[in-house]
Amino acid sequence: MKKIGMLVAMEIDAVLLRYGKAEKTEDIGTMQVLFYSMEGYELILIHSGVGELAAAAATQLLITHYGCELIVNFGVVGGLTQEMTLAKTCIVTRVVHYDFDISGLDPVEPGRYPQLPDVYIPLDQELIEKALKIEPSLKCVTVASADKFVAGEENKKALHEKWDADICEMEAAAVALQCWRNRIPCLMIKCVSDAIQGGGDEFYREVLNSSEVCMGITDKIIRGL
Questions:
Q1: CA angle 128, 136, 117 (to 5 degrees)
Q2: Which residue blocks in 40-184 are alpha helix, DSSP H?
Q3: pLDDT tens-digit map of 35-85
Q4: CA neighbours closer than 13 Å in the CB half-sphere of residue 153
Q5: Do the Cβ atoms of 195 and 136 come closer than 8 Å?
Q6: Helix, strand, coil shares of the chain as percentages rounded to 5?
Q7: CATH number of 2-224
């Protein structure tokens, strides 16, 4: 049976609404691990909490400790363009860790890891193409990721203009980087919870609805792979 690892920062309610009570749970520090037996695969889900550090730890646990062969990260994001309206659902093709910067030490541009050819951390193209065949409505996007909640139209426009990003959030860089380092495919499905003019108030108002929309599409894709 294939082991699929799923990582969520705060969208656990949408998971429980979709899958119900887990068959088994484990606690690793402050992170909760939930186990589900699905038709044809085992789903191991970690509720990591918010931020890059927690996401990196959870991703490595899923790969090293639980032996997952595919990592799935779904969740809510901020929109950086007018096209990224509320509940717009996307598939991530590349990630930029925009607050990573070693340019004062090595001759590389801000945002770039020295092992990569540019600032963008790539995701598995074959997996993206399979997902799009299952759900053609998904928009292919670039995500800007850092440990910062971005609010306000001016800040969001600046992030889009500097990094050519469509959405922003707080875990994708860690997940993508750990998967790239371990040579494990990674699928990221994201849904907008706060549009370009929005901020914290809109996020809290829309987070559950956007999470449920994202969870439904993610589940459809996983079952169809």
A1: 30
A2: 52-60, 125-134, 153-163, 172-182
A3: 999 989 999 999 999 999 999 999 999 999 999 999 999 999 999 999 999
A4: 3
A5: no
A6: 35, 30, 35
A7: 3.40.50.1580
